[in-house]
Amino acid sequence: MASSTISKQDCLTNCQECQTTLATMLTGNCLQQGGAHVEQNHVKLMLDCMAACAACIDFMSRNSDFHKSYCQACAEICKACGDSCEEVGGMDDCVKCCRKCEESCTAMAS
Amino acid sequence: MASSTISKQDCLTNCQECQTTLATMLTGNCLQQGGAHVEQNHVKLMLDCMAACAACIDFMSRNSDFHKSYCQACAEICKACGDSCEEVGGMDDCVKCCRKCEESCTAMAS
Amino acid sequence: MASSTISKQDCLTNCQECQTTLATMLTGNCLQQGGAHVEQNHVKLMLDCMAACAACIDFMSRNSDFHKSYCQACAEICKACGDSCEEVGGMDDCVKCCRKCEESCTAMAS
Amino acid sequence: MASSTISKQDCLTNCQECQTTLATMLTGNCLQQGGAHVEQNHVKLMLDCMAACAACIDFMSRNSDFHKSYCQACAEICKACGDSCEEVGGMDDCVKCCRKCEESCTAMAS
Which Gene3D superfamilies does the protein's record reference (chains A, B, C, D) (predicted)? Predict the structure, then answer.
């Protein structure tokens, strides 16, 4: 999907999916499995990403003139979180939604 | 739809739709139209409802043992906000998503 | 301090202190120490408590008619989180701010 | 106060004060007075600023590596919101806390 075809609604949906998928995986999977799943940097990135998506949803849905800053930050954090989930392993759903959210937030930020 | 058939995912989706629909309508429609649309109690209820949905999404997606309190509060606020939108008029999308969110939050809270 | 003498501003301040203290301890201390500090139920309670305080601050500062529900939920979560921090040990600052926040939220909810 | 002497705790405190002051003024004062106080752009900026402060508090208190992006965005929004409050008039507390928050967020972002 070319960035130019991503609508604000697509981006909202991707942020929503990313926020809830990460929240569910962090609390239901990572905290249960332990080990690399609860490594300081990984959990911090999961929390960053959940918060970045929530802020992005908030600013986009309020038609804010400042939404691009929040989409830009969200894209960067999704990249870092997706990389961390890939490294930890067994978190394919998280990797997938982070990549999708990163792509749409990058498009919205430009 | 019977309450008993409402899943947590349905409730999440309804809260997400309600949060973003209200945010878009408040900033893009109510604040532009003025009059009854910016009456103190109405705007306060719109803000309450957006925040209640966001908290509900957060607690449900984190598998929190305390999500029922937030679903219960969200149901009450959706009721009040839907009533206010109905009274102000010309806000059918808001009324509809508030009613749907109220129903699913009530189901989740029980 | 008797509950009857707790003002809304006191409660706001206690919620703010509790939110930021827990966030700092969770990411800077618990996630670094591991062990009981990253046990599923403990981290979930820390996240619940941070979110409960944030919601409480939001509803109280917006003069919401619904703030009591959020204060009540916050009081319950602070109780559970304070107990968990006490059990885990070495988290005296968290225990202290949870107890203080619980007390003021209980007062605000009544 | 020189920017170089502003601590993270100062910035947190200023963000907290700005968030709650704006929330209280928006719902208790602007929505009651009407007129320029409920003009679309002004209310949108008040909501942006409340959300920017909340995100900034969240990322700073969680020791996030990405807090600078949120401090930078918050500084820009505080500038715009402070200007709007100045223009509307009768909002000296808001102007003051926006300026203070802008200064400390600028320092944190650098």
Answer: 1.20.1270.360
